[in-house]
Amino acid sequence: GDLAGLKAGGGGGCRRVKPRELRLVDDVASKCLSRPPDAQPTEAERKIWEQVNQVLMEALAILDDLQSYKGAGEEIRQAIQNPNADRVQERAWGAVVPLVGKLKKFYEFSLKLEGSLHGLLKALTSAHCSPTQHLEQEQALARQFAEILHFTLRFDELKMTNPAIQNDFSYYRRTLNRMRINNVAAEEENEVNNELANRMSLFYANATPMLKTLSDATTKFVSDNTDLPIENTTDCLCTMASVCKVMLETPEYRSRFANEDTVSFCLRVMVGVIILYDYVHPAGAFVKSSKIDMKGCIKVLKDQPQSSVEGLLNALRYTTKHLNDETTSKQIKNMLQAN
């Protein structure tokens, strides 16, 4: 099918999708958004698909690591309470060093993710066809773009609810500084040098560090590729937002993609593309003239069980750029008020 109804153009761009156009969403929906996907890369896509696939395989391991990240809260508490007990200090340091190794791995992974995003955006926004045609013709890449967004929001949801991460890292830095002052050698291979530690601190200080990385990377992609109309990028993003929203709010789809996995996948992808759009589009996602139907998208989120979408609503509240602008309607601000 042709996604004409979603094409940016007439009136509000790719805003409203009418029932008879639902079948137009079919193709993109079933191949790019259902779990497991059935989009296979074409020859032209294969090189970039394989590079991104490596990164996505690693993403699964990163999520497992983050999910099982317990932190060294108890050891740190003991060490702070017993500043002169060497054994207690050593135990805390011994607990924190491998955890910081994990945090370093997560941070370094964010840079790989940035590289993948760059490659995918280049393929999905090139000028040779419309955003809709891109999503129809390059479904395996569109799928990977969706997977990256899904990973990003999942990572940030886990990070947001894990205060141990920043606690462990700041203890590590304080202890390392003290060791430097006292000329105690730290094991070299574990040491995170100062410059890297500063970058990691900035990264983990974000409520949603991976999203921030992707938003900055998308913004940089647009400013680096001045020959590419910005609409190529924003239309690609709003088309994906529309497809997700339609899938989530239309009963026929919901029943066909019955597994909860697909629902949570679509929700995360929808929120991810909204946030990227809000960063890249000069006026953002929340203005009246926005090509994304924000009220519809927020309503879809609000219709889910609250526990499953609280992290996504928080991402819209705290990681978007334009939500608090005067141009954002009161209604949208009220819909996003934390209860």
Description:
The chain is mainly α and 339 residues long. The chain has one domain (4-335). Helices cover 70% and strands 0% of the residues. The protein has helices spanning 22-33, 43-67, 73-81, 86-125, 131-137, 139-160, 164-181, 194-205, 209-224, 230-249, 251-256, 260-280, 294-302, 306-319, 330-335. Helix 5 (131-137) crosses helix 10. Residues 1-17 have low confidence and may be disordered. One of its GO terms (biological process) is regulation of actin filament polymerization. InterPro entries: CYRI, CYRIA/CYRIB_Rac1-bd. Pfam families: CYRIA-B_Rac1-bd. Belongs to the CYRI family.
Short description:
The chain has helices at residues 22-33, 43-67, 73-81, 86-125, 131-137, 139-160, 164-181, 194-205, 209-224, 230-249, 251-256, 260-280, 294-302, 306-319, 330-335.
